C-alpha cells in the first residue's frame, strides 16, 4: 500500500486515508509503505494515528524512508549517521510506534560513504528501532557495493530494493531485477501502473485528463510525469496495451500489475490510492490472474516498446565472444 | 603525448592506446609493424590486443614488434573468447585462464604481460573462481596488473567484492564501448570507476567511423571493409545501435559542430571521450599507416571547450528525446570549464 497521497493537497485527507487503510487491511494487505518526506510528514502521521487508534499496528509490516530533504538545514537530508538517527526518531514519533519494520534509504547519497550509512542502520537495528534495512532508487552498482560492505564488515544488509518499474519504464528489468534475484534481495516496484498512464485515460491527446495526477501535479516540480510519459511512442504502446485488455475483457490494472509481478525476483509491487474506490478496484483486479496467452500479448507490446531505448543495453552476457555450452550453472 | 596513471595504480600509460585487432587480418604483418613503430615514435607506449584477435595473429604481430623494446611497452591482452572447438576453449574458468595466459605469452614471445584482462563476462563460471585464477596469474609473475572488458558496473562491483573478501589482486581497469552516441558507461560503470579507482580504457571512440561522417545516407548499406560491413564480427551491434533516424540526425549535428569550430570530426570525437574524468586511456584502432598518422594528428589538435560542450548537448538531446530511458542517478556530464588537470 503506497501512501504518498495522504495529506497531499491533491491526494486525500485524514479520514479518507484511514478509510483506505482500513479497506486495504480488511482486504488482506499487510504491507504499508511511507516516507518521512511524504507531504511534510503528514503521511506518516495519518498512518500512525490510524494504526495506534485502531490497535492494528501488529497486523502490518510498516516501511518508511529517510534521505530526502525534510528541512532547509544542511543536515536535514542525506544518508549520514547524523541524519539517519534524527530521521528515525522523528518517524517513530509520527508513526506512534517503537519500531520500523523496514527502513529504506530513499535514494543514493553519493556524498556519504555507504559504510557510514550501513553502520548507522546496523546500530539502529541492534537498538531495536529498525527490523530490516532496504534501499530505494539506487543504481545497481551501489546496491552491490552495499551488499559487499555488509558482507566484509559483518553488518546487516539491504534486504529490499524499491524502484520505479512498469511497462513504460522497464529499465529495472534489465540489470537490477536479475541482480537482486541472484543475491536474494526483494524487488519492490513502485508505480506499476505508471501513475495511471496504463489505464489509457489520457488517450493520445497529449493533454492530461482533468483531475488526474498528471493534471493536478506541477510537472516542473519533481513529479515530471508528463515529460516522462507524454510522447508518441508511449501513447502508441498504451493504445496497444489497452486494446489487449479490452479484447480479452481483462482490467488494465490487472495486466499491468501482473506484468511486473511475473518477473522472477519481484516481491511486492506498490500501488497508491487517494480514493477508497481505487483500493477496491486494485483488490478486485489482484484477486484473479489473467491467463498466459493474454500475458504473452502484453509482453510482446512491452518488449517492442523496451527495444526503443537508446544508448543502453542489458548487461553483456559475453555471447558475442563465443557461445558457452549450457550447464546447470548457466541461466 | 600525455602519460597518466592507469586508474589508481602507479603504472604510467599513454592516453592513446593502440588497438591491435586489425593486425594480421585487415592489416598485414608488415603494415602492422609500421603502424606500431610510428605510434611509438609519436610517444605512444600502450598496446591492447587479445588472444582471439585475428586468430592469434594479432598477438604474434605485436610480439614481433615488442621484441627489441619490451621494457618500454605497456602490453595488454585478454582472454575469454572461443579459441577452439572444445567446451573449455571458451570462458574464464580456471582451466581456460591458465591455458590462455600461457598461449598468449607464447604468441607474444615474452614471459609477462603488463595487463591481463577478461574479454567479457562468463555467466557460467562463478566470479569467485575467475578472480582466484586471475590472482594466481599475478602471483606467478605472468601479469603485472589485471582488468576486465565489457563488464557492466554491477558485474565489476561483484568481482571487486570477491577480490576484497579474499584478499586477491583487484581489477585495475575496465574496457567499455564509449562514444558520443553510446554513453551507457556513464550510467553505472563510470561512477563506480571513480569511486573505486578503476581506470577506464574506452574503445570505439569514433563509433566505428560513424562519427567521422562515413555513412551520411540513412538506410543506404555501407561498402565493405568497415565496422558496418557484414564481414565484421560485430556488424550487427553497430547497425542495431547507430542505424536509426535519431542517431543519424545526431551524427549530422556533430559534423556541423566540427565545421563551425573548424576541427576534424576525429579530433572532436577523441577529445570528447577523453574529457570524461573516469577515462584513463582511449583505444584507437588503425587499419592503415595513413589512418594512424591521421589519428595522431587529430589527437594533438586543439579543441575549444565550447565544441566539446556542444557535442555533449547533442548526445544529451538524443537521450532526452528517447521514448523511455533507464533511471539516471548522477549528472552524466557537466559542461567543461577548464581542461582536465
Largest sheet of chain A: 6 strands, parallel
Q: How many β-strand stretches of chain A?
A: 6
Distinct helical segment count of chain B: 11
- The structure class of chain B reads alpha/beta
Helix content of chain A: 40-55%
Percent helix range of chain B? 25-40%
Structure description:
The complex is a heterodimer of chains A (331) and B (341). Chain A is globular, with a radius of gyration of 20 Å. Residues 311-316 and 326-331 of chain A have low confidence and may be disordered. In chain A, β4 (130-136), α5 (140-153) and β5 form a beta-alpha-beta unit. Helices cover 43% and strands 10% of the residues of chain A. By secondary structure, chain A is α/β, with parallel strands linked by helices. In chain A, α1 packs parallel to α12 and α11 packs across α12. Chain A has helices at 14-26, 42-54, 81-95, 114-126, 140-153, 176-182, 213-216, 219-223, 225-229, 232-248, 252-261, 276-286, 292-306; strands at 31-33, 61-66, 100-105, 130-136, 158-164, 186-190. By secondary structure, chain B is α/β, with parallel strands linked by helices. Helix content of chain B is 40%, strand content 13%. Chain B is built from eleven helices and ten strands. In chain B, the strands form two sheets. An eight-stranded parallel beta barrel of chain B has the order 3-4-5-6-7-8-9-10, surrounded by five helices. In chain B, strands 1-2 form a two-stranded antiparallel sheet. In chain B, β6 (113-118), α4 and β7 (143-149) form a beta-alpha-beta unit. In chain B, α3 (94-108) runs parallel beside α4 and α9 crosses α10 (289-300). The radius of gyration of chain B is 19 Å and the shape is globular. The two termini of chain B are 14 Å apart. The model of chain B has no long low-confidence stretch (mean pLDDT 90). The interface between A and B is large, with 55 and 58 residues.
Amino acid at each position: 500500500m503506497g501512501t504518498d497521497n495522504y495529506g497531499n493537497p491533491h491526494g486525500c485527507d485524514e479520514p479518507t486515508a484511514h478509510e483506505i487503510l482500513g479497506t486495504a487491511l480488511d482486504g488482506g494487505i499487510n504491507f504499508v509503505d511511507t516516507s518521512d518526506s511524504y507531504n511534510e510528514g503528514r503521511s506518516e502521521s495519518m498512518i500512525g494515528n490510524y494504526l495506534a487508534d485502531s490497535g492494528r499496528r501488529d497486523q502490518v509490516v510498516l516501511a518508511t524512508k529517510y534521505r530526502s530533504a525534510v528541512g532547509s538545514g544542511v543536515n536535514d537530508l542525506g544518508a549520514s549517521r547524523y541524519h539517519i538517527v534524527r530521521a528515525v526518531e522523528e518517524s517513530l514519533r509520527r508513526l506512534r510506534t517503537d519500531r520500523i519494520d523496514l527502513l529504506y534509504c530513499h535514494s543514493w547519497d553519493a556524498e556519504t560513504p555507504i559504510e557510514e550509512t550501513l553502520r548507522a542502520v546496523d546500530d539502529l537495528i541492534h537498538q531495536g528501532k529498525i527490523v530490516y534495512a532496504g534501499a530505494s532508487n539506487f543504481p545497481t552498482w551501489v546496491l552491490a557495493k552495499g551488499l559487499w560492505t555488509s558482507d566484509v564488515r559483518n553488518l546487516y544488509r539491504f534486504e529490499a530494493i524499491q524502484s520505479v518499474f512498469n511497462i513504460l519504464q522497464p529499465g529495472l528489468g534489465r540489470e537490477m531485477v536479475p541482480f537482486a534475484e541472484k543475491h536474494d534481495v526483494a524487488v519492490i516496484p513502485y508505480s506499476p501502473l505508471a501513475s495511471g498512464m496504463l489505464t489509457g485515460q489520457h488517450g493520445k491527446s497529449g493533454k492530461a485528463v482533468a483531475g488526474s495526477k498528471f493534471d493536478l501535479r506541477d510537472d516542473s516540480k519533481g513529479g515530471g510525469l508528463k515529460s516522462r510519459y507524454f510522447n508518441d511512442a508511449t501513447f502508441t504502446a498504451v493504445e496497444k496495451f489497452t486494446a489487449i485488455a479490452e479484447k480479452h475483457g481483462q482490467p488494465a490494472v490487472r495486466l499491468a500489475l501482473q506484468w511486473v509481478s511475473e518477473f522472477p525476483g519481484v516481491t511486492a509491487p506498490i500501488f497508491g490510492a487517494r480514493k477508497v474506490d481505487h483500493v477496491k478496484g486494485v483488490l478486485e483486479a489482484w484477486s484473479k490472474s489473467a491467463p498466459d496467452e493474454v500475458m504473452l500479448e502484453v509482453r510482446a507490446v512491452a518488449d517492442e516498446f523496451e527495444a526503443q531505448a537508446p544508448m543502453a543495453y542489458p548487461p553483456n552476457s559475453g555471447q558475442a565472444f563465443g557461445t558457452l555450452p549450457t550447464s546447470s550453472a548457466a541461466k | 603525448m600525455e602519460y597518466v596513471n592507469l586508474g589508481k595504480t602507479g603504472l604510467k600509460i599513454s592516453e592513446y592506446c593502440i588497438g591491435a585487432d586489425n593486425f594480421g587480418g585487415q592489416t598485414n604483418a608488415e603494415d602492422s609493424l609500421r603502424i606500431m613503430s610510428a605510434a611509438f615514435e609519436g610517444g605512444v607506449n600502450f598496446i591492447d590486443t587479445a588472444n582471439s584477435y585475428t586468430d592469434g595473429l594479432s598477438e604474434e604481430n605485436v610480439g614481433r614488434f615488442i621484441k627489441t623494446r619490451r621494457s618500454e611497452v605497456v602490453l595488454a591482452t585478454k582472454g575469454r573468447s572461443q579459441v577452439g572447438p572444445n567446451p573449455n576453449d571458451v570462458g574464464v574458468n580456471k582451466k581456460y585462464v591458465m591455458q590462455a595466459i600461457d598461449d598468449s605469452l607464447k604468441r607474444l614471445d615474452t614471459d609477462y604481460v603488463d595487463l591481463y584482462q577478461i574479454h567479457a563476462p562468463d555467466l557460467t563460471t562463478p566470479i569467485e573462481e575467475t578472480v582466484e585464477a586471475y590472482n594466481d596469474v599475478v602471483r606467478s609473475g605472468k601479469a603485472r596488473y589485471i582488468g576486465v572488458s565489457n563488464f557492466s558496473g554491477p558485474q565489476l562491483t561483484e568481482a571487486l567484492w570477491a577480490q576484497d573478501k579474499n584478499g586477491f589482486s583487484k581489477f585495475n581497469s575496465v574496457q567499455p564501448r564509449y562514444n558520443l552516441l553510446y554513453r551507457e558507461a556513464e550510467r553505472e560503470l563510470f561512477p563506480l570507476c571513480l569511486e573505486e579507482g578503476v581506470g577506464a580504457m574506452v574503445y570505439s571512440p569514433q563509433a566505428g567511423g560513424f562519427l567521422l561522417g562515413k555513412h551520411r545516407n540513412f538506410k543506404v548499406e555501407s561498402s565493405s571493409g568497415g565496422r558496418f560491413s557484414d564481414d565484421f564480427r560485430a556488424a550487427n551491434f553497430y547497425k542495431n545501435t547507430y542505424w536509426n533516424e535519431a542517431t543519424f540526425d545526431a551524427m549530422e549535428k556533430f559534423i556541423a559542430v566540427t565545421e563551425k569550430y573548424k576541427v576534424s570530426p576525429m579530433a572532436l570525437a577523441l577529445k570528447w571521450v577523453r574529457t570524461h574524468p573516469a577515462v584513463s586511456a582511449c583505444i584507437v584502432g588503425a587499419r592503415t599507416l595513413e589512418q594512424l598518422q591521421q589519428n595522431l594528428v587529430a589527437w594533438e589538435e586543439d579543441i575549444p571547450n565550447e565544441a566539446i560542450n556542444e557535442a555533449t548537448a547533442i548526445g544529451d538531446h538524443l537521450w532526452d528525446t528517447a521514448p523511455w530511458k533507464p533511471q539516471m542517478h548522477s549528472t552524466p556530464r557537466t559542461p567543461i570549464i577548464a581542461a582536465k588537470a
